[in-house]
Amino acid sequence: MKPLFAKGPSLGVRFLVLAVLSVALMVVDARFDVLKPARSQMSLVLMDAYWVTDLPERLWQGVSSQFGSRTELVAENEKLKTENLLLQGRMQKLAALTEQNVRLRELLNSSALVNEKVEVAELIGVDPNPFTHRIIINKGERDGVVLGQPVLDARGLMGQVVELMPYTSRVLLLTDTTHSIPVQVNRNGLRAIASGTGNPERLELRHVADTADIKEGDLLVSSGLGQRFPAGYPVATVKEVIHDSGQPFAIVRAVPTAALNRSRYMLLVFSDSRTPEERANEAAQAQDVQDQHVGNAVVVPAPAPGAAPSAAAPAAPVAAPATAPKPVTPAKPATPPAQAAPVKPSATTPAATTRGRE
């Protein structure tokens, strides 16, 4: 007679099987790319989970903003008006500098972009692993995001996109131990490499000579080397420089300018994807077209009133033709040169040989 309830494997056996299966999946995910499509599809399902987990915070922010006191709102409004006025004044100066930069680049036959295209993204998740500094944003492959795309906030560079999903992306921050960025000192142009330390408030400059001209308070900006980050964006501020006479390199520590652990909204930078050769060729073609337009518009000065045109002079064209003009043969004089009667120089006029009348 069979028992009413069949006895299955014990709890320990089940736990062991699940543990082995979990370890196998982690090894496969770390060493192979087989599970990337599955992870990309699972992100579509997890978007609802992100939205649900973020709902309490958004509700709390909405309720707190509704019950804010009128005095605080009026004071904040006045402060924002003052800041807006100051920013408008700065933007007027920036607009003039931008126009001047454009004119100088045109003189240099350079077609490089002055301003990059940007798109606003929002933080929706943080990697719980304390040994990696990664965040998740709400822009993905469907929004035009690409691998290696720079990400910055209102204060400076934050990192770059390292993993793409249809509607979300993972961003590796500057302070991660596996991340490095080429920088230069804004004061004197000294180049260096800023590497992450695992501390969200610290970067280190590797292999800086002990005699290098760098000091506390120097601003570090992206140098643009490597064609990954655009040049000129703030990266960090030098906080400490330690010189050791027994070591060939100085210890340089810097603080990131971006609020890596506080920023909620950030910008995705879309740089110019053309190669330098393509930009140079396009600039040369544009210059050739401009030269052709200038060459086709030839203005001929009108003759003075009452002056008769010379017979030996070629006929002046009214406008230059589009094609290369043919040489004009000078008109022959009415009388041969041999029949011209020479005039003897007088004492009151300088000695000179004049041509005979035609």
Helix content: 25-40%
Count the strands?
12
Distance between the first and last residues' Cα: 143 Å
Shape by Cα distribution: globular
Please sum up the structure shown.
Keywords: Cell shape. This protein is α+β, with helices and mostly antiparallel strands.
Describe the protein.
A hairpin with a 7-residue loop joins strand 1 and strand 2. Helices cover 31% and strands 21% of the residues. It starts with 10 loop residues before the first helix and ends in a 62-residue tail after the last helix. Among the domains are: 56 residues; 156 residues, Rod shape-determining protein MreC, domain 1 (Thrombin, subunit H, Beta Barrel), CATH 2.40.10.340. Strands 1-2-5-4-3-12 form a six-stranded antiparallel β-barrel. It is built from four helices and twelve strands. With 358 residues, the chain is of the alpha+beta class.
Helix/strand layout:
Elements lengths: L10 H21 L4 H31 L3 H38 L9 E10 L7 E4 L12 E3 L4 E8 L4 E5 L6 E6 L5 E6 L6 E7 L9 E4 L11 E9 L6 E8 L8 E6 L5 H21 L62
Antiparallel strand pairs: 1-2, 1-12, 2-5, 3-4, 3-12, 4-5, 6-7, 6-9, 7-8, 8-11, 9-10, 10-11
Protein name: Cell shape-determining protein MreC
GO cellular component, one term: plasma membrane
Keywords: Cell shape
